[in-house]
């Protein structure tokens, strides 16, 4: 049995994995962070489920999905993370879960403080601002020093807790969508607990590419996506609430569809994408056949390190994430130091080199180009990226 680290470099193995996906001809996609592709098998299963529900309409939904299948799906998600199913509720996406957790957290009084940083996802930032306005709270915002280190990130939060003793609730992003920085969640959550601060964790980009033990992290409230690195159809996510902390989150909009106490009342209620949810068993089967999170993460980090190790040598290019294995993942951002706005270089990469990337703004370190490898990315793709970066850097050296 090969080691996971060796398997990450096995191009034959990952070529076979790539063959599971249908990929249209066109630009090389290095923007795999938005959402992930479904494998061909998952897409076919999804289509069968669409056809089945479309033909049969509400009968199987009322008799089977509502009466038992949805609970079985919650059990499978709980097994994926080693959780109690009583702490899992289905949602359409991580954003829905996080917004519900934020607006329904009932441990706040006028004058209390909330905490966010410059790396939060927009919907999380907006929700925290909204709650602050609605409840007479003070919003504290911090920016992380650049370049960030494991120690500086933890210190930033400790300083915030000490400087603002009325902080009661904070948002925390496991993997930021802006730069790809992985935050030291366990240490930050431990520091928060020392100061009586609750944490709502945005795990949207973490699940499926980073190994973690949610209970060991000490997190009581979190939201996750299944359509990024796990490989599910769009509109699949879930909410987690530690069953011992369920009373700290009110039912969403007073929902009472389920007898209390039940976490499903904390999730926005409505008709879900039933064909997509019926596809989840196939999604999880293929996820495990690829080697699960450990193998996926090792492959993604291997590909990431190939281009980063070369980009660091290039004049006029700054890679924004350190190589500390605790802080990096598939998503990594760079910038051309002679430009404030990186969009022109995103355009050049696409027009001149057939490489699709995306510009990101909003973090204290400024505009950047987000590069995200995926499961169909090859070493040839990485070599094309390296060639493009080298030529662009030399042209502006």
UniProtKB/TrEMBL annotation:
The keyword Phosphoprotein does not apply. GO terms for molecular function: lyase activity. Keywords: Lyase, Pyridoxal phosphate. The keyword Methyltransferase does not apply. It comes from the Bacteria. Coiled coil: none annotated. Residues 70-385 form the Aminotransferase class V domain. InterPro entries: Aminotrans_V_dom (IPR000192), PyrdxlP-dep_Trfase (IPR015424), PyrdxlP-dep_Trfase_major (IPR015421), PyrdxlP-dep_Trfase_small (IPR015422). This is Isopenicillin N epimerase. It comes from Pseudomonas deceptionensis. The lineage of its organism: Bacteria, Pseudomonadati, Pseudomonadota, Gammaproteobacteria, Pseudomonadales.
């Amino acid at each position: 049995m090969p080691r996971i680290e060796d398997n990450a470099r096995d191009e034959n193995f990952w070529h076979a994995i790539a063959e599971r996906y249908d990929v249209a001809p066109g630009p090389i996609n290095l923007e795999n962070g938005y959402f992930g592709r479904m494998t061909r098998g998952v897409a076919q299963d999804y289509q069968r489920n669409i056809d089945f529900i479309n033909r049969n309409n509400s009968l199987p939904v009322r008799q089977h999905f509502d009466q038992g299948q949805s609970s079985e799906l919650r059990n499978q998600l709980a097994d994926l993370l080693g959780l109690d199913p009583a702490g899992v509720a289905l949602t359409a996406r991580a954003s829905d879960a996080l917004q519900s957790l934020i607006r329904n957290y009932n441990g706040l009084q006028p004058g209390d403080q909330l905490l966010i940083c410059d790396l939060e996802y927009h919907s999380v930032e907006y929700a925290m601002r909204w709650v602050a306005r609605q409840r007479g709270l003070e919003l504290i915002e911090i920016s992380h020093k650049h370049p960030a280190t494991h120690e500086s990130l933890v210190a930033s939060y400790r300083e915030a807790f000490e400087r603002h003793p009325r902080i009661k609730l904070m948002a925390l992003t496991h993997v930021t969508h802006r730069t790809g920085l992985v935050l030291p969640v366990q240490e930050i959550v431990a520091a928060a607990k020392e100061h009586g601060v609750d944490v709502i964790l945005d795990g949207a980009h973490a699940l499926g590419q980073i190994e973690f033990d949610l209970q060991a992290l000490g997190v009581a409230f979190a939201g996750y996506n299944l359509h990024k690195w796990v490989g599910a159809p769009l509109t699949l996510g879930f909410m987690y609430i530690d069953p011992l902390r369920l009373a700290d989150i009110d039912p969403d909009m007073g929902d009472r569809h389920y007898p209390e106490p039940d976490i499903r009342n904390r999730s926005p209620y409505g008709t879900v994408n039933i064909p997509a949810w019926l596809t989840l068993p196939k999604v999880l089967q293929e996820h495990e056949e690829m080697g699960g999170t450990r193998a996926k993460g090792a492959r993604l980090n291997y590909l990431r390190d190939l281009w980063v190790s070369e980009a660091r040598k290039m004049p006029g290019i700054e890679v924004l994430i350190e190589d500390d294995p605790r802080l990096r993942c598939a998503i990594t951002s760079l910038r051309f130091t002679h430009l404030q706005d990186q969009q022109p270089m995103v355009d050049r990469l696409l027009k001149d080199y057939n490489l699709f990337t995306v510009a990101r703004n909003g973090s204290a370190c400024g505009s950047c180009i987000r590069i995200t490898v995926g499961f169909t990315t090859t070493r040839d793709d990485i070599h094309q990226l390296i060639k493009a970066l080298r030529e662009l850097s030399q042209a502006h050296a």
